[in-house]
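User: Hey, quick favor. My workstation is busy. Could you predict this chain's structure for me?
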Amino acid sequence: QVQLVESGGGLVQPGGSLRLACAASGFTLSDSVMSWYRQAPGKERVLVATITTFGVGTNYADSVRGRFAISRDNAKNTMYLQMNSLKPEDTAVYFCHAWLVGSWGQGTQVTVSS
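Assistant: No problem, here it is.
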């Protein structure tokens, strides 16, 4: 059974950092391009970052480029999103997505507020 489980969300002050993790099971993470998306209240889900199968290539939304870093550890079947210099507008539920199997995690809430 394919499963993606996000973790690492929480409440952080503006300027702070968080590291999200996405643990995959039921398929081999290294076989899939992976992405992080986010969905703010009342808004559509949008693409945040993407990483190729072996991490050689990455791509970011303009709104997070230079602040966020996507990475993967294929040996641990886990993907990460390091988020620095967080802003209130980064508040959203963050989801991981595996393009190979079309699966989504349940999401993890990130709230940036003072």
